[in-house]
Amino acid sequence: MGSYLAERLSLEHQDVVVIESDPVTAMEVQEQIDCLVINGNGSSHDTLEQAGVDKADLFIAVTSSDAVNVLSAHAAAKIGSARRIARVEDPQLRAGAASLGVDLLIDPGDATARDLELLVRERGVSEVREFAGGSLALIGGRISANAPAAGMTLADLRKEMDEWSWLVAAIVRHGETIIARGGTRILPGDHVVSMIEHDKGDPALKMLGLLLEPAKKVTILGSTRVAELTAKRLCQQGLQTILVDPDPERVRRIATDNPRLVAICGDPTDSKLFHSEGLETSDAALALTGWDEINVLGSLIAKAVGIPIAVSRFHRLDLVTLLAGVGIDGAVSARLSAANEILRFVRRGRIHSVVTFQDSDAEALEIEVEDTSKIVGQTLREMHLPHDMIVGGIVRGDRAFVPRGSDRIEAGDRLIVIALPSAIHMVDELLG
Amino acid sequence: MSLRRLLGVIGAVVGATGLAMILPAITALIYQEYNEALQIALAGIATMAAGTAAFTYGRNERQQALTAREGFVIVGMSWLAITFFGTLPYLATGTITNFTDAFFETAAGYSTTGASIVPDPGVLPKGILMWRALTQWLGGMGIIVLSVAILPLLGVGGVELARAESPGPAPDRLTPRFKETAKRLWLVYLGFTIAETLLLWAGDMTLFEAIAHSFTTMSTGGFGTDVRSMAAFSAYAQWVVIAFMFLAGTSFALHFRSLTKPREYLRNAEFRLYSGIVVVTATVAVVGTWADEIGNVVRDSLFTMTSLVTTTGYATTDFGIWPASLQIMVLGLMFVGGMAGSTGGSMKPYRLGVLYQAAKTDVRKVIHPRGVFIVRLGNDVVPSGIIKSVQSFFVLYMFIFMTGTLAFGIIADISGANFDLLSSASAVASSFGNVGPGLAAVGPSSNYALVPDLGKWLLSFLMIVGRLEIFPIVLLFTRELWRR
Fold first, then answer.
1. Is 0.85 exceeded by the ipTM?
2. Which of A51, A84, A107 is the last residue before a domain boundary?
3. Which candidate in A252, A280, A281 is best for mutational testing of the B interface (most B CBs within 10 A)?
4. Whether the predicted model's global pTM rises above the 0.80 cut
5. How far is B350 from chain A (nearest CA, A)?
6. Residue A288's domain spans which residues?
């Protein structure tokens, strides 16, 4: 997880120092990522000083050990790093960690469970991120072959629209994110991120073929921590939740802890089990076992027996972007979920909020335009934005709307910018 | 298992009950019943002598913690032994001349049933009335020990007590820790008894009546001092008794835990079930017996339902003349009982709750054949071992009730006594559940004097079997127990 974060941050032209205790891993990271790697124990005072923690703006401790993370965050606080993030999974430890100098606690399992909950609640839509108190929303969804918009260019799409209330901001295709232009063509299987004025969202969703019907019955395959946390969240939401796992001991324990959950002891890749337990009438299947292979198989079987939505969890990050859309409707990774949470925390200053996506490295930033900014009074068209960013929404006072090219920027506006990592460092200077 | 060693323990128990006979002897002295005082004292001395002899005989056996099996045998045998010796005061004073009747009365005492062959308790000497009440109070004490030492082995009250005491690593041994637990629970028992005595004494009862009624309320026994049972006393006394019957039907371990945290009561699922049953059935009874003096109707309904659910068996009204539908409810309530760990008898709401939840789980299993469902009562998980033992308890309980009713019917028919089906079934259910009065021929306005001798033996036996939660007595009749 640390290496993924280092990669993301280094792509954004941040100076990154990685502390890794295993020499072989340290070597690998050094080879792959443009950053400084120090081989040593992250909780030792000497190693931290050597890494220059006292000059760091942010210290992130994300080893697999709660204790090491809290200890090194505490040590970093003493040396004097500005802000500290630690990964802590044990809920009992979380309460005390704040007093030990940790500014943000993250739990990858819980972050994934939260993402999955959102995904299940708004079925068909794989992501919903709200802005301006919910009046604008970024909605991610997979385009199916029979969606009206499939095969059209965005320029074609414009002509079909009655009202200017939404726009396609970005398209994720084969693991690559494209910021949408007029000539971009929407293809079946694309993951489309659209900005929508929330109360006028229905025509957009219809065009994109996304139904916004919340799931009522969800099947979870596996009994990992993520599976359990997700099951707990879904049960709390009042959804009928069924968990399938072959390990009788674990199933019994999870059933004991979650009274409302239906726990089934069986092979999650057994198609007969789907039938005999009535799982095929589920609205969504979440494959959350600890093995990528079983998750793929489980998701495919779930789709084959007729469950409309299948989401799989992967350890290997390349699979997340590669396989999402190939038989599987969505993919999650605990590392990505947690990394995204950290990235949201990293951005500060004029940036009001940051939104990240599961299978794309694009980010959405909400930025305030100051009175002195050179873009005040310009139309969007006149701004000549680079190709890897787009203004998807404007919040002006208590009004929020999806802008056209002819809309002028006013002082005090808040722009919602969707940008690729390569453009994020430019956002400041463009708006400054 | 050494018989000699068991005799030693049983001797100690019998000796202690002999010692207890001093109290009725003193009572008799106070009321200037000098003959009775002497006769009861002699009975006490005889009992103590027998107990001491057995105790001395078994004393020299090596001291070692008792096994569960020995515990069961001791409980079963001791209960039979003290019932046998408990007849002595009745026989010695000549208040009951027939041994069968005396045994029935004593069994109804120690088992806290409260069924009686005495037509009018009011004419009995005060010393004997005290002995009747005292047998119930002692029986209640015995049940509290059982709830600590035996019931956990049967999987009832175990969850309850485990949380309060966390017993040692070898749950099948009767460790000294149980002694400490029992002492604490006895303190609660004693405290409630004293409190009730004072409250009743403050009303229209004499001190003697207040003590006698406290003894039989806290033990959920139900022996009274007047032929009209509690109807002989004021509304105030009846309200006090309602409250204390309800407390006696509540787990004493729960009382102890709730001393500092009263919220514990409502957090306990069995308590919620128990109080729910009382409130709902009382409401039904109020509607069913609606009359102009609504205050009396409410009090009588609540009194009757609390008395039946806690298996006390006092009466303020003759529920034998209630409408048939309400009588069926009365019969059904004889199968409920007070909470596990209380002095109440019968099946216990805990078992009924577990049975219901287990059945519900089985129904869910049809929908999800491979599903893993956890049976829980409230928020507490019920371990599968307990579910099984509760289910077999239920089967045994119903089996004994059915065969008991059949046997009672046959006995009654052969002896030419006039007992219809309702009388027979309610007599058996009431004795087995340690309630006391039944319906029809054995209703609250009547007594058990007319039951044929063989029938009295059957009912006495059922009282003891029911009181000891079936297993310890049934165990005495298994061949494997007596094998070396």
1. no
2. A107
3. A252
4. no
5. 19
6. 215-337
